[in-house]
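Students often ask why we bother predicting the structure of a whole assembly rather than each chain alone. The short answer is interfaces. A chain on its own may look different once its partners are present, and contacts between molecules only exist in the joint model. In this exercise we take two input lines together and write out one structure for the complete complex. Read the inputs first and try to guess which parts will touch.
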Amino acid sequence: MTSFPFPRRSPVRISFGIGLAILTVFGLVPAVGVLVVSFTDLRGLPYLPVNWVGIDNYVTFFSPSKWPDSLNALQNTIIFALASTVVQIVAALGIALLLNRPLRGRNFYRAVVFMPTVLGVTVTGLVWSLMFNVSGGPAKSVFALFGAHSAFFGDPHLALSLVILVQIWMVVGVSVIIFLAGLQAVPEELYEAAAIDGATAWKRFRWVTVPMLAPSITANVLLGIVNALQSYQLTFVLTGPNNHSTQVLSLLVYVQGFGGASGTTLSQSQGYASAVSMVQFVLVAVVSLIALVILRRREAKL
Amino acid sequence: MSATTTAHPAVAEKASMKTKRRLKRMPVGGYVCAAIVLVVFLFPLLYLVNTALKSNDAFVADPVGIVHNPQWGNFITAWNKGDFGSYILNSVLYTAAGSAIGTLITLVLAFPVSRGYIKGSKLWSVLFVLVLFLPNALITQFQLLLRLHLYDNRLGYILMVSVGLGIGPLLFSGFVKSIPRELDEAAAMDGVGYWRYLFTFIFPLARPALATIFILQAVWIWNEIVLATVLLADPSKFPVTVGLYAFKGTYSNQWPLLAAATFIVAAPLIVGYVFIQRYLVNGVLGSVKG
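Now the answer. The structure tokens for the assembled complex follow.
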């Protein structure tokens, strides 16, 4: 405990206490509650009796009757997280390098790239539903040029990739800004020294830019993974919560807990939905930790 | 920031001076790439406007063609059929109130923890990391509000989104370290109490950091749709995300009308964004640097 300069400690404790109380009641209690509820058979309707069922919900998640759905959601979640993180970072780095060059109007380009973040999921979702409209739209016309056709979001093989593309379009601006901040912190002497040593553009990129950007890359990877594993707002708008081919774990939680389209008693179990939440939580924690360890090790090496 | 941006042209010039050929070619390639980026980000919006101005028949006949006979009435029809004015007001209320409460919570929590003015500071800073990884609590958030009689209640939804602090506390405790501790001591010596110090000294000093924290949370709340779907039942309380989504459900086969509605929602955002974009982007930039 360091020295405390103010006359009385009580104001610190009061304001800290109020902030912590709100955070606890509305943030931490529901979060811990998920773990508790996942061991019960709580249902969506209030005032029904609630029973402890132990690990039944988890057993159900991995049981033969549920496993196809569970596996599908797990796979979709992991594909979504990996693909959107990797592609987003590569795209963001490319755009950031471009916008870091002395081009006219680059502040305008930067603003345009960041704009979808402000437009929001519903606007983004509707704009891209229109672009990929099955009965006619730009995407259909482009496909027709190559003599191909597709149901786009209705095509089970394509839907997830398209959702990932739209997700990247929507959030890449934030990564671009993070990279731009990193690029501006690279001391120009390093580039000068490298240029004097006769390093090619690629070598300067590989051995000056990338190592100096390591902290930005770590920040972007973690942000990307956590966002991708937890974000379902866009998928919700683009394909609805019940589309098998794009159903990620968070949407499974929504469908199981709040019915979605099917209204059977089993599909309303909020206890089961909470168990799915916990599976997702463990997945997010494990993947983020592994990514963090790998990235930190790389940062140390560079 | 301006110092670093003006420094960069020099870097690029020095690099490209090696060969005259490259000096001439590089900007062209850059502008071509920039044009591609612009098309990728602006074309979908232009296509939206194009569709919004078509009649339903014209859209069915030729979806991608440029509009010949603009139907400005689509906007009026969409405005009358969906209650977008009140949806937008709801969203503004939720976003402003939620982010304000959230930023305030961040301020009163992160400052004493960063300074070590509260017992167990180490433990509390672990909590700041932990809030990033909390499980998806949709079910319990719903149950909690139901039990507190705050279900389908504006205040309930605002409180629920206000605690989505994200990286706010982490950012702010980092920022506080750049404010010299001597300032605390000098102010205390002059008889300034803790609250007065927090709100009349730290608050203005930390305004850029707090603005960033506010904006990051505001963007999240503005985009939120699933929690609002679950926690609100009365359409008059819907934020614009849910309102527009419901509108899509009703008029799913009338694309020009739907596009007009989407544009009604997007237009104020784009206009507002033009005014605050410098602030917004610099805010995110500052948060990463700080």
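Check your guess against this: The first helix of chain B runs from residue 2 to 16.
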